[in-house]
Prior knowledge:
By secondary structure, the protein is mainly α. It has a single domain (2-172), classed as Up-down Bundle (Growth Hormone, Chain: A). Helix content is 79%, strand content 0%. The longest helix has 48 residues, at 98-145. It is globular, with a radius of gyration of 18 Å. The termini are far apart. The model is unreliable at 176-180 (pLDDT under 50).
Amino acid sequence: MGFMGCGASMAFIDVHLVAFWQDHSTPRALMGVSLSLLGVLELISGLLTGWLAMRLPKRTLLGAFYVLRSCAVLLLLGASEDLRTLGFAVVFGATYLGTVVLTSMFCLARYGPAIKGRAFGYLFLAHQFGGFASVQLGALSHDLWGSYQPYIVGLAGLTALGGVTSWLFLRDPDVDTAPPPGLQARPSA
């Protein structure tokens, strides 16, 4: 569920975000600064996530990233131009790559190195379904209502649901009792 929301929110950025800002007459310079800021924070988020994952429960961190991403999407509905652009860029950029890093960690811990790639591939398929649906539903929302607002509310709900499912249904790999397949403990020398 979470990774589908990840794909949906990323596809919104790739396809509809600039059009959304243009609908609100956002200055081009502000759009450019916001997209650049989002990209820089994406890089920092990816690096910081690995460090945080060694110190905090991974499911809590993943759930928090999804809930923060949901909040970022809701910032697009703010009345202030700065909130719709810079606020969105900061919050979304800070969570952008962290969800991928943590999901990959869960796949490795849960399925082991032998099939981690296949497991992550299946999850990435859900990610791409979310992306496809996002592009289509965003366009449909704009065509039917002349606005992305109904779609943005739905996208925020889907992304928040990903956070809640992470908190409720994932177990942290560090506290699992049995080692994942392929990662059997070796006797110490």
